[in-house]
Structure prediction request, 229 residues.
Amino acid sequence: DIQMTQSPSSLSASVGDRVTITCRASQSINSYLIWYQQKPGKAPKLLISAASSLQSGVPSRFSAYGSGTDFTLTISSLQPEDFATYYCQQNYSPPPSFGGGTKVEIK
Amino acid sequence: QVQLVESGGGVVQPGRSLRLSCAASGFSFSNYGMHWVRQAPGKGLEWVALISYDGDNKYYVDSVKGRFTISRDNSKNTLFLQMTSLRAEDTAFYYCAKEPIAGDEVWAFDIWGQGTMVMVSS
Prediction:
């Protein structure tokens, strides 16, 4: 099974900051990487698929890159509604697996 | 709009059974594969099971194989998860989630329900 590792596990940032989260796969997953956002008490929301394709309605301050084993999610200017936990997930090979999550907190 | 609503969660003793349901609306349910994904309190996400759009193919995470059964009733737009021999480590929020592409399994989740809590405790 493919293991997904996210870093950091948590970070504190201020509104307007640029934030970058990394995700590493235990083997190459090409571009089969998805990012989700989860707010407290809510279900996850699909943000980005195929490593870099923003879902409809996702603000352009979100961007993501990567292929193979190393991936990043960047929020260019953090907004109050972006404080949440972010998960990466590989859909290259079943079973699908998630990273441990990165909690973005208010500084 | 597209909506998934889970039900059936609760507190159950170890070794007992529980059946979760997920009512779908706002899309052609019978055209899409469906998943169950769980999240232990304060923990990360874990995929549990997938059923193909027509119910012919079913897949499970190793930890639930032989204990959980995923099924669907396309005439009633409903997904199920029958859970038996429950263990403390099965305690989690259980989400149903929809595949993004009709007729295919790409192992992604584009729409999620609000979740239903299952607590296994004596």
Q: What stands out?
A: Chain B touches chain A through 19 residues (CB under 8 Å). The first strand of chain B starts at residue 3 and ends at 7. Chain B has no helices and eleven strands.
